[in-house]
Structure formats: structure tokens, C-alpha cells
Specification:
By secondary structure, this protein is of the alpha/beta class. It has one domain (about 1-25, about 70-255). About 35% of the residues lie in helices and about 15% in strands. The chain contains 9 helices and 11 strands. It has a 7-stranded parallel beta sheet with strand order 7-6-1-11-10-8-9, sandwiched between helices. Strands 4-3-2-5 form a 4-stranded antiparallel beta sheet. A hairpin with a 4-residue loop joins strand 2 (about 40) and strand 3. The longest helix is centred in the N-terminal third of the chain and has 14 residues, at about 1-15. The chain is globular, with a radius of gyration of 17 Å.
Length: about 260
């Protein structure tokens, strides 16, 4: 199955110290790229014209207002359409149970000619998450790591060799774009190569990975999303995390993408 094959393709590159970039464009990014309001709050979620009666903890709060933050839409579309060797784009599957599957034709048309660089936005989660924990994390522990993550993340637990960290705050998707310049400068000033950059900064991750891989493709840049939350002292709200780390059964742990 391509879902697992693509996972092991990235894992192989990680093991061989072959630099690559992996970005993820899922329902939140689609909402922004279509210039619709996106809001995650304590007690509700807004996606375009739809309001949902559930919410997220402060670490996940975000708000994209099309009337104020159009720059984010533009740069996300650039990042999604960018083509370069070993620049992998996690897009939308055409045959799955994800809520965003209806946007697959729009996403594929926006991407252009489909190639082997277009993969799943869920490559490290759902049915691949046990593979991520069992195979990916042990490899990450051997690498020189740079984290781009929440200001509330705990990187002092000894799990990883953290060379440097850049923190994001509230609504980082629109407030923390200064990190593009900051991280580029740090890379240049310190001649950084052969490092693995791990991004857990919502849609800002895609902007940073795009800009940094264009700037310096001698490092690896991975959007890990929420996969490492249990190891960083952050909230575990995603169903796949609760199921795996709580040793429970849940459909997400059996969900593959096409």
C-alpha cells in the first residue's frame, strides 16, 4: 500500500542521512488556501461557513481572518505548489474517510501534474502512527535536532538531542512569521547542515519548511504535527494519540490513506 510505502521511503532517507522536506496540507490549510475563515477556540471551531460545537486547548488555538491575513493564503499556496527534488507534499487523499476528502479534486488540480512527491498529509499518523513510534522516533533520537514548537513544550526530558529550539506563541499561523528570517540567519551564521528540523507549529510549519528548504537543502525539515506531543509534555487531544498512548482501540489507528 502506498500509504506505508511512502512512510518507509521517508524513513529510509532519514536513516541514510539524505536531506528531504515533508509538508502537510490538511483541512485547516485547505480552509485558509480557499480564503475562508478558520478559528479554533476553547469551545468551538469555525471553518468557512460552518461552526462546530467542540474546541481545543490553548496550544491549538488559531484564527485566520481572510480580511486581515491574506498573506498566509498566498504563501501556503506557494508552498503547496512548490516542486523540488526531495520536497514532499502531504496533500489530500482521493479515497478515504477524512472529512476533507471532498476537496481532493480541487487540491489535485491546484498541485498540477501528479508525481511521486505528492503523498498523504496523514503519513505519520493514523495507521502509520505505530510505525512512527516504533521506527521513526528511534531514528530521530540519533539525529541533531532543531525543534520549532510551542512555547509550552518541554524539551528537557532527555528523549532527544536538541541542538536548538525556536518557540511559537498564540496564533502562530499569523503572528510568528519572523521565524523565517530568524531561522535562516541561524542556519547561515552557524553553517548548519545535516540537522533534522522538526515542526509542530500548525500552518506556519508549511511556510517555514518551504522557505527553509528553498534556502538550504542540506538539512531535513519535517512537519511532525502533534505526533510528539506525548514526549513534549503537551496536551493529547487527537484521537489517534489518545488511542495509541492509552492502549485503546479506535478507528483512526486502522485508517489508511490513498
Amino acid at each position: 500500500m502506498k500509504f506505508e510505502e511512502d512512510f518507509f521511503n521517508l524513513l529510509g532517507k532519514l536513516k541514510r542521512n539524505e536531506p528531504f522536506a515533508y509538508t502537510r496540507f490538511s483541512d485547516g490549510e485547505i480552509c485558509v488556501m480557499q480564503d475562508k475563515e478558520l478559528k479554533l477556540a476553547d469551545d468551538h471551531v469555525v471553518m468557512g461557513e460552518t461552526r462546530y460545537g467542540f474546541g481545543y486547548s490553548a496550544d491549538d488555538h488559531k484564527h485566520y481572518d481572510p480580511n486581515e491575513h491574506g498573506f498566509l493564503k498566498d504563501i501556503l499556496i506557494e508552498a503547496y505548489k512548490y516542486k523540488k527534488e526531495n520536497y514532499f507534499v502531504g496533500g489530500i487523499c482521493k479515497d478515504c474517510t477524512c472529512a476533507s476528502k471532498d476537496f481532493a479534486p480541487w487540491m489535485h488540480n491546484l498541485y498540477g501534474d501528479i508525481d511521486d512527491k505528492l503523498t498523504s498529509a496523514n503519513l505519520l499518523v493514523n495507521s502509520n502512527y505505530p510505525l512512527f513510534v516504533g521506527h521513526f522516533i528511534p531514528e530521530l533520537k540519533k539525529k541533531k535536532l532543531v525543534f520549532i514548537c510551542s512555547e509550552n513544550a518541554d524539551l528537557d526530558n532527555g528523549e532527544f538531542d536538541v541542538v536548538k529550539d525556536f518557540r511559537v506563541g498564540k496564533n502562530c499561523i499569523v503572528n510568528d512569521h519572523h521565524l523565517v528570517v530568524d531561522i535562516k540567519k541561524w542556519i547561515d551564521d552557524n553553517s548548519i547542515e545535516d540537522h533534522v528540523f522538526l515542526f509542530s507549529a500548525s500552518s506556519l510549519s508549511e511556510v517555514l519548511i518551504y522557505e527553509l528548504y528553498k534556502h538550504n537543502d542540506k538539512n531535513t525539515y519535517i512537519d511532525v504535527g502533534t505526533t510528539l506531543h506525548p514526549y513534549l509534555g503537551l496536551s493529547i487531544e487527537r484521537d489517534y494519540l489518545r488511542a495509541y498512548h492509552g492502549n485503546m482501540s479506535h478507528p483512526d489507528l486502522f485508517k489508511s490513506c490513498v
